[in-house]
UniProtKB/TrEMBL annotation:
The lineage of its organism: Bacteria, Bacillati, Actinomycetota, Actinomycetes, Kitasatosporales. The keyword DNA damage does not apply. Keywords: DNA-binding, Transcription, Transcription regulation. The gene is ytrA2. It comes from Streptomyces cyanogenus. This is HTH-type transcriptional repressor YtrA. Pfam families: GntR (PF00392).
Amino acid sequence: MVEYRIDRHSGVATYVQIVQQTKQALRMGLLRPGDRLPTAREVVEATAINPNTVLKAYRELEREGLVEARRGLGTFVRRSLGTAPADSPLRTELEAWADRARAAGLEREDVAALFTAVLDKHFQGDPT
């Protein structure tokens, strides 16, 4: 099950963070079709956010066709995204690269900027 982490200083709306983290879990294969998302109550208890915020995020995911709410049962994954499993060799390479970047003195924001620049170069015009 996914555990949401809310960064109150990121400037990103809380419900958007939940949507993004759910999509990331879908891309990484941590969530699969049929898996149940945490209930709004479980997310509220873990993150101390408003239940309506969780419901708004889940509605957005449902609107995108990624999850479906089943009355009385919860919210379940309908489909996955991407093909980058958590145990991918590419992940191992990326983790080694991140270790080298950190050892070189780069901060998280530096790494994010560098990685985004490389992604932008290699995925120009990619609609995903």
